[in-house]
Each structure stands twice: as structure tokens, then as C-alpha cells.
Amino acid sequence: MDPAAIKTRTMTGLWLLPWLRGIKAYVYGFPLIMMDLTKEAAAAATAGEITAPVNQFSVMTKYPDASFRAVTRTGLDTLFAVAWADLEKEPLVLSVPDTGGRYYVIALFDMWSNVFASIGKRTTGTAAAHFLIAGPGWQGTPPADVIQTYRSPTRYVWVNGQMQADGPDECAAVTALQKQYTLTPLSAWGTPWSPPAEVPAPAETGTAPPLKRVQAMDAGAFFGRVARLMKDNPPAPADAKRVKTLRSVGIEPGKDFDIAAVDRHTAKGLQRAMGTFGLLQKALTKLKTENGWLVIPENFADYGTDYKTRAGIALIGLGGIWRQDVLYPPAFKDGDGKPLDGANHYLLRFGKGQTPPAKATWSVSMYDPQGYYVPNAIDRYNVAPWMPLTSNDDGSLDIYIQAASPGEKKETNWLPAPVSGPFSLTVRIYWPADAVLDGTYTLPPVTRLEDH
Asked: 408: how many CB neighbours lie within 10 A of its CB?
């Protein structure tokens, strides 16, 4: 064999193994990075969307529109109240008001994007209550008026709340309720405590959304951030094998990582591993579907060691909560397996009595390839049962998915699509019935209308 070829093959082999290990490290750390960037954006003074200092709630007062960039694939059936809790010094008491029977859910996320607790109508009722959120090292006794204590495996917790709002007319009532959410330091519980008026904002992060920021990272920045974040947000005991993989390429949990300090072959392999972002996008197209809708796995929001699924969801739907609270299957293809494209006209038909069975509500939303709403002339980004939808004579319900108006008589059921190019849909089922969770109920396919 040509000596040059032997040398090339040898050199390739030297960075091949670090590259493969780097791919595993990327998939493992991606959700942690996305959570941290989202937390950072939420506390930045210039972010402008769902922003508040750590340990304080930000409350959404109206439905988001096509300019919304705080998170991807957000919904329009609820208003959000969100806080980032820092449990380093002590636990926090989460207080909620009596919602008068109105559906709400507050999911508690650790920094690996796993939900470790669900508070709300389904689990704890709608009466006024106090809950304690404690960090991994806390040892103590909760106050007598706290009805439940939840322990986070990480220092930071994403307190992600949403409350049903059936149309703009309900936004004021929902906002008034959610503005009563509070997070009180345990040491101040029982005293007339108020959050500090001024909290230093994080360093300037720019205006790019988290997904764009992670795409722009090089290997040194990405893996350095993963290593640093694991100090306060340690890997789970079950992650020991994956942590060993990280260490094999110089990434130590809680320690500074300098890519210039590792050998050049490892550095090259890790830099090539940054292409894993594209692999995650491709992997989503290969997930199991039913009638074109992705099947939401049972381990959704509680992933264990299923790192690929965890990373994939962090890419397209960070903030997704337990299936029992909200189920949101997306569709990137029609019922025939062809990519959804705005150049076509589509129909989503629910037979009589076959709209998604929900104990709260349901909807169908439209997104561009980045997971944001598609601008359109009527500012409609979803279809929901509170709207004046028109059923057919046989009781079925048609939703028209296309760029142009389907005609005046059908516009009540129109979900506007982009003029051309790819788009995706998400059906949301809030507090889904058992038939949804066990697979007895299936969504109908999105059908392309061939005469257009």
C-alpha cells in the first residue's frame, strides 16, 4: 500500500474514536445546554419575552404571535407563567391560588429536561396550596402548611406553568390568577417577604434564540459549557457509563474544559462531533409515526438513559411535559409519508365524535421549520374548539390547511400555511383521556388534496 495512504488511514483512525465518543457526548449534553441557554435568555434584560430574574415568575398576559422566539413550538391554548428557581442556598415555597376549577399544570424540570413533578388540576387539584421545592442536598423539615415537598436532582429548576385560556376574552382572568404565583425562600416563609426589586441581569447574550446560539457554538464552547454546568447539575447515577465516555475525551463533570489542552486528534474529533446537530434533525424524520403523526414515547419528559430521545425533544420541543398532562404529537409528513409543503392544500378531517378526547381542551398548531409560528394575513396560528368552528352535516369536522383562503364559508376552519416550503403541525391534547394514552384513539391523517 502507498505509504501516504497508510499515513492517511492512520491519521483518520486517530480522530475517529474521539469523534464517535464526541457524538455521544454531544447527544448527552445537548439538553443541558438548551436548558441553560433558555434560562439565561429568560433572565436577560434585553430578551423581551417571558423574562424575569431568577426565583421570580414572568407571566404571559396574551397569546404569543409569529414574532415569539423565547421557546420553540409553544402553544396557544394556555397562558404561561414561568420561573427559574435557584436552590443553591435553600428551598423555595411555591404558592398557588384557588383557580376555581380552571385547568392548570405546573411542571418542575431538572436541568437535564426531565420533569420530576407535576402540580395542577390533574394531580393536586385546584384549591390554593403551598409546595416546597428543595435541592439535592437539602436536609430539613418543611413547614406545616406545605402539602407536598418535591426534590430536584439539580440546583436549577424550570418551574413551567400554564393555565387554560379559551380565547382572548379569558386572558385577563388567567393573568390575574397566575400573577398570584409566588416563590418564597424557606427562611422567609411566614414573614412579609417581597422579592428584591433589582437583580443583576446576566452578561449580554445577544438576541439570537437558544437554538441558534447552540448551532453557532464550536466544540470548545459547547463541551466547556457542558463540563461547567455539571458541577451544579450533576449527572444521574444511571449516567455513569456516559460520564465515562465524556472523561475519555477530557470532559470532566464540574471542571473547566480547554479544548486546546487535549491532543489534536481528540480536538479534531470533538469539532467534527458538532455536526451531530444535523444528525439530530435527521433522526427526527425516522421516528415511529402513525397516520403521519409522531408517536410520543411513554418515557417522554422522564427519559432515563434514553439520551437520543431526550436530545431530539430538546431540539423540537424543549419544555414538553408528561404525557398524562399534555400530549403533543407533531407531524412533518402527510398520511402518505410525503413532507408537508405550503405549495399544497391539505385536509385534516375528524369524524363525528372523533376530535381528540381531552379532559381539558385540544388544538392543532402550525409551525415553520425552526418551530415558530407562520406569519399570515389573519394572524391565526392554531385551531381550537373554543373557536366558532363549523361542522359538516354528518357531524365531522374539517380543518383546511393551506396558504390561500379556502373560501369565505370555510374560513372558520382554516389553518393558514406558508405560501411554499416545509411546515409542520402539532396536535395538543390537554389532560388526555385514557383512550389517547393507551393508543385506542388515533389521530386521522393529514390528507393532500390532489385537485390543487
From this structure: 7
